[in-house]
């Protein structure tokens, strides 16, 4: 029986639309895992070297990270389970030399395999680990038996008791909510304590997940670390001040200043990067500080034009771009020296303005060259201008390295003891000959001099320089 060949074209089987969308979602998840691995690598490297790095949120909001929300959640969750993941990998012993060199990516993928909602299906590293899923699950079961616990949650509690996971800090946005009301609401989910150092800061157990909490989503509370919250509080701004924040994105410190100023006064928020400006705008809008915050571009150009046209400006803070830290994490001695030279110039510049009465210099570095050495180098100038070192947060025990007289006034946070590294120096002007008390001034003159100028310096991650208030009429 003869068979006739058909001239009809072969059938093309189209993938269902849902399957095509799923493939797109998988590719998006693949990119998110790679982006999260880069951020995690930076964080873990800083921990290994006992060096402070930018906050996870700052790293994630780098312009190079596309899926910011997904990357942020993935990094936070992987860090939450990191001790468990490391123990499971040690028991399962499934990694070869190739994948041991890519540990941050392995940790991210293992989180998805062991604790995530969906098992990854594309990517070489993903396929390698998925083929060993049974060994990983067996390792997790063995770990539960060894630790004599019945669940992963108990494993996390065990890690927290051993101090491997830092506490969750939450700052209350007092523009929208008082501290006691926030405590009452958050206590429905977790144990809450008031921080002993920063009045509007709350302390919660490690692993407290508030990213989707209504108070976070509507801007009544902000997830902000203790060191970051101490910077604005060290300035002690008052209602009616005018402040310039020169590298303000993503904006947590900007809106903290607005909160401490009770929404009264003016904050000039400077940011050059367009992507980060968008994030800054979102933060300001979320906080409710829109009436007191104004966004401009280049801080240096704005400041120069403002001074040239109108004389002394309102109070301000100066910052070098965060991108330096985000893209250059290899802090060799040459780079540290260059940073320190810049920081000395910026601090000296801040101290030199005639109307400045207070300067807060802060970094998230633990290196002496960027901290004590910078402060020591400007002390002769500061003294000649009538400044002395004051003591921010006197109750804080960890002070500066004893490398010069007066270093006991400096404040340090240790990345091991305090789970993050910070440095704060506070300069105050003691020469008040040109600034008589309000009671000694005529009524009109008193009103004109009500705003004085206090700089606020932050050189490392968000290198801040001057926040303050100054003599002059309110704008």
Automatic annotation (TrEMBL):
Residues 158-430 form the SAM-dependent MTase RsmB/NOP-type domain. Gene3D superfamilies: Sun protein, domain 3 (3.30.70.1170), Vaccinia Virus protein VP39 (3.40.50.150). Pfam families: Methyltr_RsmB-F (PF01189), NSUN5_fdxn-like (PF21148), NSUN5_N (PF21153). Residues 1-29 are annotated as: Disordered. The active site is at 364 (nucleophile). S-adenosyl-L-methionine binds at residues 247-253, 271. Keywords: Methyltransferase, RNA-binding, S-adenosyl-L-methionine, Transferase. InterPro entries: MeTrfase_RsmB-F_NOP2_cat, MeTrfase_RsmB-F_NOP2_dom, NSUN5_7_fdxn-like, NSUN5_RCM1_N, RCMT, SAM-dependent_MTases_sf. PANTHER family: 28S RRNA (CYTOSINE-C(5))-METHYLTRANSFERASE, NOP2 YEAST -RELATED NOL1/NOP2/FMU SUN DOMAIN-CONTAINING. Belongs to the class I-like SAM-binding methyltransferase superfamily. RsmB/NOP family. This is SAM-dependent MTase RsmB/NOP-type domain-containing protein. It comes from Brassica napus (Rape).
